[in-house]
Structure formats: structure tokens, C-alpha cells
Amino acid sequence: MGEGSYIYCIVGEPFQEQYGISAINGFESEVRTVRFRDIGAVVSSLPSDVQKVTATRKNMLAHQLVMEEVMKGTSILPVKFGTVAEPSGDVDPEDRIRSRVLEERYKELADLLAEMRGRVELGLKVLWVDIKVIYSEIVAENPQIARLRNKVNRLPESRSYQSKTTLGEKVKNALDEKRAGEARTMMKILKGACVDYRENNTFGDRMIMNGAFLVESGLGDEFDAIVERLKEENNGRTLFRCVGSAPPSNFVELTITWE
């Protein structure tokens, strides 16, 4: 069996024939474009005995870095991590990609590329700086929680278990409501500067928002200005972590099968 081809993304014109070197699965190979009409697939070679690319941090980073390099010059459609085209009989992987992906799915891919043209993904995570401050706010905003906390503080340890459990549940619910309310307020402002957005899962007590925003590349400064305004309005109470420009993986991720 000959070499396989690892697929990073689909691209539209203008694209390059070569994009340097990648090291998927530790195997260094030239990154190049397989073309069909005005679209292409960005690929690199894999040894004949490699049929699967493992989801290690290094491999996922290599996948991401190639897409980031390619999108500097053109629009891209991210392909699901780990996608490999193997030889099939006398048909080499690049011919399979050309016929089974680029040609068979030409209209779908061309339409998606037109939709993504000139757009980038920006990521934004928002966190409370000090969770103790937020718990204090919850107590101040919820008289029932304040009374129950005072009751727990007066009870001896041997009799406080049930009250502590109830208090913990009420505080958690109040925290979830507070997070959702603050996220809604921020999202209402932020989504005015984007074409589309996704709200991803949050992690831990401190995270308020984990959002991805599809933004016209010329409006990145406008989006940044809104984030800066939100920072000022929160008076150091929240931390904003911005990432981008990034491949639009939250908005399109192509799955390629060979059956």
C-alpha cells in the first residue's frame, strides 16, 4: 500500500501549491494543495502503515497551525481532525480526494467557501476574577440565602448537615442564574458585531461565557472595541480572554467518508 494523505481543510482561490512542512503523527511532510477547478484540499503525506492519526496535543496543534497558515491568504473550510485518504486499488489518495470530495461535493463546498469568504472566527472566554466576590453578591441579592447561611452558622456541626446541603443547592442555582443573566447581557451586545455566534459549554464556577463569533474580517476592530467597553463597564470584576483570528471550526467542520 502506498502513502496516504492527511486532509487539513478545503480552500478556495487564491491558494498556494505548497504551504511548508507539517509533522502530523511525527512524520514530516510537505503541505500542498490538491486542486479541482477553483477549489482545493490542503494535504500532507503519511507513511503507508499509518491509517489513523491519534488525537494527541501535538497532532491537534499541527492540524491547527496548518489551517492558520493557509487562512492568511484565502478562505478555508476546516476538515474534521484525523481525516485520512488511503490508496484504493490503483487509485492514489490525491485522485480519491479530487474525485470523491472536490468533484462530487463541488457545489456544496463552493457555496460554503462563498459563505465563509472574508470571515474569521474570534473566541471569547469571560470569567469572574474572584469567585468569593460573586458569592458575596449572591448572598446580598438573595435574602432567603442570607437567612439560611445565618442559620447554618448558628447551628452546631452535628445538626447542620441538611441545612448546609440545602444552602449549597440554593447557592449553586443562584450562581447558575447569575452566570446565565450576565452572559445574556454580554451576548446581546457582542452579537451585534458578528455574522453568527456559538455559545459553548462553560467550565468551573468562574467562567461566565465561552463564545465563538463569526466576524467579517474588516470588523475585527469593532468587535475588539465592544470587548474593551465591556471590560470597562465591569470595573475589573471580570476577565476577558480573546482568541483569534482562527479557522471557523465552530461554524463549519467537514466530515469526509469514503464508503
Write the layout of secondary structure elements.
Blueprint: E1 4-12, E2 18-22, E3 29-36, E4 39-46, H1 57-70, E5 76-78, E6 84-85, H2 93-103, H3 106-116, E7 119-128, H4 131-141, H5 143-154, H6 161-190, E8 196-199, E9 207-216, H7 220-233, E10 238-246
Antiparallel strand pairs: 1-4, 1-5, 1-6, 2-3, 3-4, 7-9, 7-10, 8-9
Helix pairs in contact: 4-5, 4-6, 5-6
SS content category: alpha+beta
Beta-strand residue fraction:
25-35%
Indicate how many domains the architecture comprises. Answer: 2
Number of strands: 10
Give the end-to-end Cα distance, rounded to a whole number of Å.
Answer: 18 Å
Tell the overall outline: elongated
Any overview of this molecule?
- This protein is an alpha+beta fold and 259 residues long.
- It folds into 2 domains: 4-117, no CATH class; 120-246.
- It has helices at residues 57-70, 93-103, 106-116, 131-141, 143-154, 161-190, 220-233; strands at residues 4-12, 18-22, 29-36, 39-46, 76-78, 84-85, 119-128, 196-199, 207-216, 238-246.
- The strands form 2 sheets. Strands 1, 2, 3, 4, 5 and 6 form a 6-stranded antiparallel beta sheet that branches. Strands 8-9-7-10 form a 4-stranded antiparallel beta sheet.
- The protein is elongated, with a radius of gyration of 25 Å.
- The model has no long low-confidence stretch (mean pLDDT 88).
